[in-house]
Amino acid sequence: MSDNNAALLPLAGLRVIEMGQLIAGPFCGKTLGDFGAEVIKVEATGSGDPLRGWRLLKEGTSVWWQVQSRNKRSVALDLRQAEGQEIARKLLAEADVLIENFRPGTLEAWGMAPETLQAANPRLVILRISGYGQSGPYRDLPGFGLIGEAMGGLRHLTAEPGRVPVRVGVSIGDTLAALHGVIGILMALYHRKAHGGAGQVIDVALYEAVFNCMESLIPEYDAFGVVRQPGGSALPGIAPSNAYPCSDGWVLVAGNGDSIFKRLMAAIGRQDLADAPDLASNPGRVARVAEIDGAIADWTRTRSVDAVVQAMGEARVPAGKVYTARDIAEDPHYRAREMLLQQATRDGYSLQVPGVVPKLSATPGRVRSSAPHLGEDTDRVLAELGITPGQIAALRERGIVQ
Length: 402
Known about the structure:
- With 402 residues, the chain is of the alpha/beta class.
- 39% of the residues lie in helices and 15% in strands.
- A hairpin with a 2-residue loop joins strand 3 and strand 4.
- It comes from Comamonas flocculans.
- This is CoA transferase.
- One of its GO terms (molecular function) is transferase activity.
């Protein structure tokens, strides 16, 4: 699919070279592409980005790939060869942004150190995502998202008390790093425009992106020596907020506001708790959280999830069912908000995919093109650099492009 109104998008005219693979770098590129940036994805010759083969495949390609690589063009280059590196440098000489998530030192080994690239293109903004950052004693250690989640403090908390720490269920460390990368790019572009036109290097470490979201974890330790512990489905120190059993599943109820708590207790027939002076504020409720959770569970246990959600809605108490993929796909609110889109793939089938976030009122993002086949745009992009068809054929013969 294509969109002739790309110029109306907020990042129209921005050229991004994505040299990352798998999750963190490519998610960053996807987000920029959804809002109009021209994203040229440089993939390795051979099999390309490993994400093409991850999880469930349809027509030989991951359906995850169809989401992660929409609004991108694919160029297949062998960056281990000098001629491939030279082509990459030519691309970067005309680019606004470079995204890379290789191990530190990889770009330098390819003759593409930031100072080299910015000498040729002073306006270039370079985002570098790695496990531990570009400096420090752990710099050269391999680091995937799960390691960032562990070192950032998240994995210690994602467990039932006394049980093994579990992963969130998605690659949240990579995604948080990507979103921090997007923020960094947009700030660097703003600075470039407002203060002289120079680019800069953005250093995002996976563990730091996770750590940045860990709320009061460190201040609590510093002030009180408290090491926050896993709380399972509850929100430790804030009550009541938990998952409660129903006759046909689980429901989440957040009654932790002072007035909300009173409405919640009235709705479940516990006016005694609603009127208790010591439960009027959070510290008192935390002291009696087991009793409060038990009262809520006694009420929810004999009711269906839908009945509880309806009752909580009428009482103006935040509550919700635990959604599965099927629940999301069938939910009218998701559809009304255009969070489920039908996307045509280049393999000839249509696929339901997540919509675009965030939602801008005047220049909303959109899916302008579907995910490319490996190297599908190589010839076109190289021709834009002034490389002739004969030269491209010779490069292909030597395995430098694909």
